[in-house]
Design brief:
The chain has a domain of 84 residues. Helix content is 65%, strand content 5%. It is built from four helices and two strands. It has a two-stranded antiparallel sheet with strand order 1-2. The chain starts with a strand and ends in a 7-residue tail after the last helix.
Amino acid sequence: MKYQLKRIDPWSACKITFLIAGVVGFVVGAMYAVAITLMASFIGMAGMSDGMPEEMGYIVGATGVIAIIAWIVLTVLYAVLGAVVVSLATWLYNLLAGAIGGVNVTFEAIPSVVPAPDASPAPPAAAPPDSAPSATDASTAALDASGPDPQST
């Protein structure tokens, strides 16, 4: 089966990219936060032996806050910029696909591993001829025996 991808909906691509890029930004932001904190602690340890000025100690102490802010900013930045870039890319793809044609995609059917069910269903079991009537037949027979319904007149 051969198909051609003519158009990508920019809004749907934007939504899914926003979520995926946000998750990636969260992970990258966490790595940056850890790296900032580790660097600040190493600077603090190195500065203690060399007689670090007091102002530098305050900066090293504030790196935890800076790391959390960087984590949040990177998460939001990745999500927003990723969504904007993909939205622009889908718009450009739609523009070019309308002019010169879309991407050709070929699909091939994969044979099923599960065997197909038997095509001929089993015939329903017939009731023996001398059996009692069913409940619907009995209720209909009782109504017929009682005569017409008095409220129907």
